[in-house]
Design a protein that fits this description.
The protein contains 9 helices and 11 strands. With 311 residues, the protein is an alpha/beta fold. The structure holds flavin mononucleotide.
Length: 311
């Protein structure tokens, strides 16, 4: 069988995601990111172009290290101001039928019980087109915003994520049986109490004793994305991820990451190809090579080195 390539758009609920400076281009509309129309137009365009999905990045804090403060990031609008990525999904789902949504959610700052419900709600509203990109965060500014002095150590964050996921699976998969909701008008029974189970979790990082709030959504557990190529990150992907997002600087580095991820899946009793791998790349299209090259030259004219937070 021929291999299929899957293509996601990569964006963020802000004006300046990965193309610093381009917001100044005369044809750029990214400052409209606060409007439903912007996201609905994009969703329609992606569906028309047969994209598999849109992947939305997110950060829980501000870039305040470069230059010793937040001024450079603020002046260049680098991933700030940034709105909640989950809120725009239903608007895009309403104008599409096939487009998938992969949305970044940070386990360090979202309590599992309420966060699980938010994702279930989105899986219902998209009719099973929803995915979660599991991140643990990389910004101390985000940790400080929640009262911590700094981020939890890298490997500990993955340990917390592992337990977080185990708890999410219990909530999504173990609380409500498929036929728990009867909505039986003549019997006057909406939910069969015998088919709803309490979840008990007493772990190292989380404790919970509750019935889950949402009825099962089309996928129950949404599609799980992850990005991270450290040994802990790869082990986490091997166990949990259905899609891994990698940013590689060369073919060789990409091949090594892909090999490690597939081996990690096998160690968890899965098949190597159970994980889809998405590589991050910038594509500029034109009717001809010359047109694409001309566009690249034009875009470069607006690109901002300072906005890339590069020395
Ligand atoms: C392509 C790509 C996209 C990412 N998007 C986000 C994001 O939106 N939000 C976030 O907090 N981290 C994001 N990350 C960071 C990862 O979640 C992870 O923290 C990072 O890759 C380091 O993980 P590692 O130490 O396991 O390699 C992204 C990473 C990659 C490679």
């Amino acid at each position: 069988m021929p291999k299929e390539i899957r293509i996601n758009a990569f964006d963020m609920n802000c004006a300046v995601h990965q193309s610093p400076g381009l917001w100044r281009h005369p044809r750029d509309r990214s400052t409209d990111y606060k409007t439903l129309k912007y996201w609905q137009d994009l969703a329609r365009t992606l569906e028309r172009g047969l994209f598999d999905g849109i992947f939305l990045a997110d950060v829980a804090g501000i870039y305040d290290v470069y230059g010793g403060g937040p001024e450079t990031a603020l002046r260049n609008g680098v991933q700030v101001p940034v709105n909640d990525p989950f809120m725009i999904v239903p608007a895009m789902a309403a104008v599409t039928e096939h487009l998938g949504f992969g949305v970044t959610g940070n386990i360090s700052y979202e309590p599992p019980y309420s966060f699980a419900r938010r994702l279930t709600t989105l899986d219902h509203l998209t009719n099973g087109r929803f995915g979660w990109n599991i991140v643990t965060g990389y910004l101390n500014s985000a940790a400080k915003a929640t009262g911590l002095a700094k981020q939890t150590a890298h490997d500990t964050r993955y340990d917390i994520a592992a337990e977080y996921l185990d708890l999410m699976y219990k909530l999504w998969e173990g609380s409500w049986e498929d036929d728990a909701v009867r909505a039986d008008k003549s019997a006057g029974v909406y939910v069969d109490p015998a088919k709803v189970h309490r979840i008990h979790h007493d772990g190292e990082y989380f404790r919970l004793d509750a019935i889950y709030l949402s009825e099962p959504s089309p996928q129950r557990t949404p599609v799980l994305y992850q990005a991270g190529t450290s040994p802990k990150g790869v082990a986490f992907a091997g166990r949990n991820a259905e899609c891994v997002f990698v940013g590689a600087r060369s073919k060789g580095a990409l091949a090594a990451s892909v090999k490690a991820i597939r081996e990690a899946a096998v160690r968890e009793g899965r098949r190597p190809n159970d994980i889809l791998i998405f590589a991050m790349m910038t594509v500029i299209v034109g009717h001809t090579d010359a047109e694409a090259e001309e566009r690249l030259r034009d875009y470069r004219h607006y690109a901002s080195r300072e906005g890339a937070l590069e020395p």
